[in-house]
Automatic annotation (TrEMBL):
InterPro entries: DDH_dom, DHH_sf, DHHA1_dom, RecJ, RecJ_OB, SSDNA_exonuclease_RecJ. Signal peptide: none annotated. Residues 467-553 form the RecJ OB domain. The keyword ATP-binding does not apply. Residues 72-209 form the DDH domain. Belongs to the RecJ family. It comes from the Bacteria. It comes from Novimethylophilus kurashikiensis. Residues 358-451 form the DHHA1 domain. Keywords: Exonuclease, Hydrolase, Nuclease. GO terms for molecular function: 5'-3' exonuclease activity; nucleic acid binding. This is Single-stranded-DNA-specific exonuclease RecJ. The keyword Hydrolase applies.
């Protein structure tokens, strides 16, 4: 591991201080290239316009015509939080524009990923014959499904953000909106699936106004931004300027009470990771709302999550949110059992010269293998695939990568090395999914390792941890932590992390999975509580050097207290 202090411009930091930022927040923001507080605002006027997004205008015209002709639309969603919020955005927006629209979401265990032929057949079973399929957060790699839809006389509009296949190119849809497609010059390639469909609806709103067509009274696409904020944070896409504006604008609406009942219910559900929607921050989405929605797609049906987001009745939304929280607790137990087994296999695979990790067990639950892959990648810092066996005999896998190793490009190379091995695959740089032919595990292990050896370097494999310097004793205050919580943090715009040496007064392992390290620390005369989740190794004693974040908790007397969240023990 390579530890470094994030460089920043003292001139930019001083300007931010003059604009009202605290010195600590100013240096943190300057280290992320921020020069003015105005860059942090959710000002929609600072968004890239929808006219820059290839296919958005064509999609708006196509959908406006479909609404005018009263054609029946079916939204085909994905089964993660991004897909669920994208579906809710599409359905809410299209209904406000007067469309005849329903939705469906594939069962990951039955239909696989994306608009497969079986999903098209499922759409045809919906009440009333569908005429247009609109994909959200999927479709860019659905060549077979789109061909099948067209053979049945259906039109397909694709909205997605994943990378298209370098081998097969683009599918034959009526319209494709995807910032990652060739020829798209949209400045923000990091849009999540929910962001893409929101942009399409923005273009559609302008198109309907141009045609002087009716829109539901008082409706504006900006009202859907709370859903965009939740989906974008949960999908861990890079938070470039455009995504930060979308998220901040969505958070502003949630905090102001302009929020759908489902989001409010998801924020307050369960006994753990609850939060006040009026003070919602991105970590509340990442560790509370997002996992609750994702759990439905992993263990049951994402339709529960989508219905929660679509509900306008508080009691109904609360009941669905509590069900989602229960499912998430079940997911955590399955995940823990699976991780324990998978890590043991992974440890056996990591030998001298091994650059990748591919582990397989026929009985692992397909709904949690992506999480398991992420955990193993965190522990061993290697591109990782976790595979399980489907009832059909095919091998289904989920992969997670490290910075500098593009997982989707790597799978394209595997496909060239072993034609026919992968029945289907897709994803992006940091996460991908794959379906292998029956019995293909060993061949995939060999091919993926060959690609990893070609692409990985010692520099890439040397994990880099950047910190924002040190904090003095008086900095460990609720006021400091509160100020650091305000901006939108996430992938590519990381939450502030600091590095200091502390003295361990006491430490113990707790938690339902016995992997939570709780410590009482001392620094500069301050006594502090600290927690490290998913701890491995011995319990620290004496002086320790920690990489940590500041977190706010509330003590039994209702007072705000600073708590350290420990990322690394050096």
């Amino acid at each position: 591991m390579q530890l470094s202090h994030r460089a920043y411009s003292p001139i930019d930091a001083m300007k931010l201080v003059r604009e009202g930022c605290s010195p600590i927040l100013a240096r943190v923001l300057a280290g992320r290239g921020i020069k003015s507080k105005s860059e942090l605002a959710g000002d929609l006027g600072r968004l890239h316009h929808h006219s820059l997004l290839k296919g958005a205008a064509e999609a708006a015209e196509f959908l406006a015509d479909a609404i005018l002709l009263k054609r029946k639309l079916v939204v085909v969603a994905d089964y993660d939080c991004d897909g669920a919020t994208a579906c809710a955005i599409a359905v809410r927006g299209l209904r406000a524009f007067g469309a005849d629209v329903t939705y469906l979401v594939p069962d990951r265990m039955v239909h696989g990923y994306g608009l497969t032929p079986s999903v098209v057949d499922l759409a045809m079973e919906n009440p009333g014959t569908p005429e247009v399929l609109l994909t959200v957060d999927n479709g860019i790699a659905s060549h077979a499904g789109i061909a099948h839809a067209k053979s049945l006389g259906l039109d397909v509009v694709v909205t997605d953000h994943h990378l298209p296949s370098k081998v097969l190119g683009l599918p034959n849809a009526e319209v494709i909106v995807d910032p990652s497609q060739p020829g798209c010059d949209f400045p923000s390639k990091a849009l999540a699936g929910c962001g893409v469909i929101w942009y399409v609806l923005w273009a559609l709103q302008d198109e309907l106004r141009r045609r002087d067509r009716p829109i539901a009274p008082g409706f504006k696409v900006s009202s859907l931004l709370p859903l965009v904020a939740v989906g974008t944070v949960a999908d861990v896409v890079a938070l470039d300027h455009n995504n930060r504006v979308l998220i901040q604008a969505g958070l502003d609406k949630i905090r102001a009470g302009e929020v759908f009942p489902g989001i409010e219910a998801l924020a307050t559900a369960g006994a753990f990771n609850r939060c006040d929607p009026r003070a919602l921050v991105t970590t509340d989405i990442a560790f509370g709302i997002g996992p609750r929605i994702n759990a439905a797609g992993r263990l049951e049906s994402m339709a529960i999550g989508i219905e929660c987001l679509l509900s306008d009745e508080a009691a109904h939304a609360e009941a669905l949110a509590e069900r989602l929280d229960t499912i998430n607790q079940e997911r955590r137990q399955i995940e823990y059992d699976t991780i324990d087994d998978a890590v043991k296999q992974a440890m056996a695979l990591i030998v001298e010269g091994r650059q990748s990790i591919v582990v397989h067990h026929p009985e692992w639950h397909a709904g949690v293998i992506g999480i398991v892959a992420g955990r193993i990648k965190e522990k061993r810092y290697r591109p990782t695939f976790v595979l399980t066996t489907a009832d059909s005999g095919e091998i289904k896998g989920s992969g997670r990568s490290i910075p500098g190793f593009n997982l989707k490009d790597a799978l394209d190379m595997v496909d060239k090395l072993c034609p026919g091995l992968m029945v289907k695959f897709g994803g992006h740089a940091m996460a991908a999914g794959v379906t292998l032919k029956a019995g293909g595990v060993a061949e995939f292990q060999r091919a993926f390792e060959e690609v990893a050896c070609e692409l990985l370097t010692d520099e890439i494999l040397n994990q880099k941890v950047e910190v924002d310097g040190s904090l003095a004793g008086h900095d460990f205050s609720p006021a400091t932590a509160r100020k650091l919580r305000v901006p939108v943090w996430g992938q590519g715009f990381p939450e502030p992390a600091f590095c200091d040496t502390f003295y361990v007064q006491s430490a113990k392992i707790t938690g339902i999975f016995k992997d939570q390290l709780n410590m009482t620390l001392e620094r500069d005369g301050c006594e502090l509580q600290a927690t490290r989740f998913r701890h491995e190794g011995p319990i620290p004693e004496g002086s320790v050097k920690l990489v940590y974040k500041l977190n706010l908790t509330v003590d039994p007397k209702g007072r705000e207290v600073v708590k350290l969240l420990v990322d690394h023990i050096l």
